[in-house]
Amino acid sequence: MLEQREAHDSGQTVSLEELNAMGVQYQRLDGSEEENLAAISALCKEREYMTRDDITISPTLIPDYEEKIKSFFVEHIHEDEEVRMKNPYDEQQTQILARISNNVVKLNETLLEVNQKIEEINEMNSDLVAFSNIWNHYQRNASLYLASTNSIEPSMVTKRQP
User: How far is CA 102 from CA 95, 107, 108, 146, in A?
Assistant: First the structure.
């Protein structure tokens, strides 16, 4: 089966006049972005288009791209006219999306490392709290023992050490 996206040639040359006679209008826009957008806007005004949709067809932007792209190669009819043009920024957008995706992966890796360090700090803090509680209990018990054996004055038992 022929891959529809591959270049193919029926061997029959069709002139622009023949296309026009069939109702197909062909126009190639090779200007700058501003010039091309101006030409598209002029076409929309001339043809009295009330709205237009700009759709970027790209494997990086469309889920299930391979399945959805097949619908473009099956003959079908639209109620409204349809204009197609190649996105001149598709390659740049693909590169930018790839960079963003790579940066998200790196960010996730970094966040995992940060979370691991926070868990380690929390565990150390938990150990410090336990040690502090043990020390406070020891200090209180030692003070009570010394007070009960008259080894220190009772007023020192109630004083808290900083």
Answer: 11, 9, 10, 65
